[in-house]
Amino acid sequence: MNYNHSNARRGKPKRLLDPSAGLSAPTPPMPQSSYMYNQQVPVNNGAMPEYGFNVPGQTPPPPSAPYGFNPQISNYPLDNTQGEEFASSQFATQLLAQPMVTNMAVQYGNTLVGTGKQQFEKYVPVTALKYYFAVNTDYVFAKLMLLIFPFTHNDWSVKYEQDVPLQPRYEKNAPDMYIPTMAFFTYVATAGLVLGMHERFTHEQLGILASSALAWGVIELLFHTVSLYVMNVQTSLATLDLLAYCGYKYVGINAALLMSLIFGKLGYFTMLLYFSISLAIFLMRSLKLRVIPQGHSSYTASGNKRRLYFILFLAGIQPILMWWLSYHLI
Prior knowledge:
By secondary structure, the protein is mainly α. The chain has helices at 81-96, 99-123, 126-132, 137-148, 178-197, 203-230, 239-247, 249-291, 302-326. Among the domains are: 101-132; 136-329, no CATH class. It contains 9 helices and no strands. Helix 5 packs parallel to helix 7 (239-247). 18% of the residues are buried.
């Protein structure tokens, strides 16, 4: 039997690579060259370099790479959001530039302002306040003289023009809100001065003093309004008229506090007593023509008695409130 030795294996058997093991044949080292064109050299454990050009067939760098050219990534957004916003803003600008649209916007704004003004005047009588603050320097001086020296004044009636009372600047018998408002703020400043002279001034005490004075004023106004309603007394007095007449007492309080700084308690009580009498005369003569109807000279009727009691009470409560708001300061 002939046996062919030429088919016998020579040398060691070759080992086949296992594809499932994820191994590959070792790559022979590339020749080092001083110039390399369009080649990727794996460095940093196989990570892609930060510089270079992409080679076809290789994975492109991520979009966050600061350098390099990547034709697959565009510099513009994929959607048209910015273009739509620009077009819409340009359209709005052109629309507002039209005269018809501008006129419509102006008319709508005027209507809105007028509605808001009506709602505001519904709760705050702005027109009435303008009347009570229509004063000038001559009126203020004449009214202060009338408050301090009411004995020599004879005509206490308020003149009318076309069924509308004249403004205070033209009629010194008309009530105003300027003198009571300024007298109240002067009262707060004078109280701070008196407390400072007695070394008892604090910011908290001054705030408490102002708030308590406002509270007493509101209580007094409510009491007089409810009294007129309960007694069923019909008068021509408005709420702001009552507020004005009740606010004139701050003029006497300021005068009494200033006299206390000069002459002590004697000057305070002297001025307080004098102004209490003058203010009572001023209020009784001013309110008589506003509370008691014209043409009724007798006070014996029940309605006129109630009106007279109201006048006496309003005039008599003012000296008590003047003392209550100022005595603790001296």
